[in-house]
Amino acid sequence: MYFASYCFYMSKYFFCSVLVLFFCCKKVEQKSEEEVEIVEEVVDPDVSFQNFIDHYERFFKTNFQISECPGAALVIIKDSTVVLKKGYGVKAVNTIDSVDVNTVFRIASLSKGVTSVLAGNLVDHNELKWNQLIKASINRFSLRDREQAERIEVNHLLSHTTGLYKYTYTKLIHKGLPLDRIIPQFRYKGVIAKEGVDYEYQNAIFSIIEKVMEKETNVPFDQLIQERLFIPAKMYNASSTYNAIKSNDNVALPHSFNPYAKRYNITSIHKNYYNVAAAGGVNASITDMSEYLKILLGYRPDIISPQALATVFNPFICTNNEDINVNYWEGVVDSFYAKGYRILDYRGRTLIYHSGNVNQYKAELMVDPENKIAICALFNAPNLLSPVTVPTFLNYYDFYINMNKTGSEKQKF
């Protein structure tokens, strides 16, 4: 309750602060009353946008310091241009080793979206179909309901609509079992709904897509994602294996919070979820994520076509009744899950969103296709800032949009 109240208070407090700051942004030279009146009424869109970026970055930096989270990184993209990209804090507590824009984090469940984009690339190359049957590629896959197992498609894996209860076999992931040993266990699992009609968030069965891709391309998943996505997108620090992050000397280490000592402590990078890399095993720097956001904004048709990207973002299942944080955001009317992404009906426009949480790392990503703007934030510890990073960004950006509309209307007169 304290966390929720704090987050609500801070987002409202800083949103109110930015209103004052925007209205106070005027030139300081001595001018006549008439000239000052003109400056107040007519807003320069370029200056206004930079003010928006500056004030949001001030919000982020201030709240990052308040949270005492060890390290973070932030990027904002407008059109195809990086307008803000920074590292904050340190890679490890009790050091002065600063996070920079090439420092690698685990991006947790943002991996699901990355995997879905990779699937789109394979669809573009006629190596995969969205309605492809899993059983046709992975014969050893089955469920207790064998008929339903025969009907499960790629669509169902990527949208969490296989009919299984949520988080099926997460315990096996935590035990470190490889995917090849997890897959045969599904034959013992019953379903709670028909495929395609019920949303139940998954990690283990989602990652069966790895084996489908490997079967259809004859290329290991970690190599495939490098060759088709990371290398052409210039995501040079991105990877999808435990060995890759352990061999990198520029990594933000994970931290847990000790509520009794009221401090963060370094924890180890564990192997969990690298055994289901498609769902939670991608590593990336904020520079890598800036290139990835350009893909999501549609500026890399050489990696994924507009048609395939639209299919990735096409709502597949309604999640309005789910107990998920986005359903409590002010302005969100409806929420859906597509393929690796949440789709939000926010104040009349469509947003693409996902968050991540693994091994103490936190990640937030949002794309506004209509306004061609996107944001991603990465953290190396649980903190109070991460859940308000995107909704506060939206509040700031909406104010910027509305102020520009007001300025444009006044210019007409």
TrEMBL record:
Chain coiled-coil ranges: none
One Pfam short name: Beta-lactamase
Superkingdom to which the source organism belongs: Bacteria
InterPro entries: AmpC-like, Beta-lactam-related, Beta-lactam/transpept-like
Domain Beta-lactamase-related intervals: 68-383
Protein name (database record): Beta-lactamase family protein
Organism: Aquimarina algicola
